[in-house]
Amino acid sequence: MALGTVRNDLLAIARAHNEPDGGYGLVSALCAYRSQMLESMRSQWDEVLLGWVQEEAPSLWGVALEALVRAGGTMVNAELSRILHGGERSAQWREYVAYALIRRGCADETVRMEAEQGARGMSPMGLSNLAGLLVIAPELLGTAIDCVATAMSSGHYDYVRANLPPFVYAAADSDAELLVRMVERISERDLENGKRFAAMVADYLKKPFIQKRIGADVAAKLSAVLLVSTRTRN
Question: Engineered SS bond to 52: which of 57, 81, 89, 155, CB 3.0-4.6 Å?
Fold first, then answer.
């Protein structure tokens, strides 16, 4: 099958899917097409979708990223990282590409730099991306703590609160003590901000949807260790 044929097929699928579902139906259809291809031909699917991302194709690059996260081949990480590393791009595009790479388990220098720069600049997804990296690059915890502490010291509490979920997920999925260390390190800089951060996390853990997501028992355990951590510093 020629590359042009694959590109035309995928464009036809895109034109046929205009449901108001945020593009998820199209993503599923694109992935289904790839699953039906011969193994030796699937790199052509990757190439077409990587092209949509690189070109920032209107209405297509976002669904292409999601499809690549779900079904892309082994070379997708290297190609996405190369694209992210080069040229001037919109901040939104850069953050979504970094997020896609993190979801695919990539923590190379380009992704780390993008996430850290975004977090220090308090961009919409910067701190969230940095938190997501902690599962695959736990050595970045110090950087994440510094970014959180700096944001709180400048009064950007809402920014930190909005980016709590990936920190909680990282703790639940890989390291239950992560949040405790964050509270302790932030408290070393500013005790009140340490207590404020602990309270933010504890409030978030009370939400029914997060207890369902990580399990009520895990949420209770995290809340308990946070409470002990803050009490020992009173």
Answer: 57
Asked if 96 contacts 62 with a C-beta cutoff of 8 angstroms, the reply is yes
Q: Pick the closest to residue 139 from 107, 169, 167, 166 (CA basis).
A: 107
Provide CB contacts within 8 A for 202, sequence distance 6+.
Answer: 223, 226, 227
Closest Cα to residue 164, out of 148, 177, 185? 148
Residue with tokens 């730099």: 113
Q: What's the average model confidence in pLDDT over 177-184?
A: 89
Cβ atoms of 179 and 229 within 8 Å: the answer is no
Using alpha carbons only, how large is the chain's radius of gyration in Å?
Answer: 20
How many angstroms separate the CA atoms of 141 and 138, rounded?
6
The predicted-structure confidence for 112-147, as pLDDT tens digits, reads as follows: 999 999 999 999 999 999 999 999 999 999 999 999
Does 18 have pLDDT greater than 70? yes
What distance in Å separates the CA atoms of residue 160 and residue 122, rounded to the nearest whole number?
9
Phi, psi of 83 (to 5 degrees): -65, -45
Dihedral angle over CA of 104, 108, 110, 112, nearest 10: 90
pLDDT digits (tens, 9 = 90+) for 45-95: 999 999 999 999 999 999 999 999 999 999 999 999 999 998 788 999 999
Give the closest residue to 100 by CA, choosing from 87, 85, 111, 88: 111
Length of the chain: 234
Alpha helices for 55-163 (secondary structure H)? 61-71, 76-85, 91-103, 109-120, 126-133, 141-153, 157-162
Contact yes or no for 184/229 (Cβ under 8 A): yes
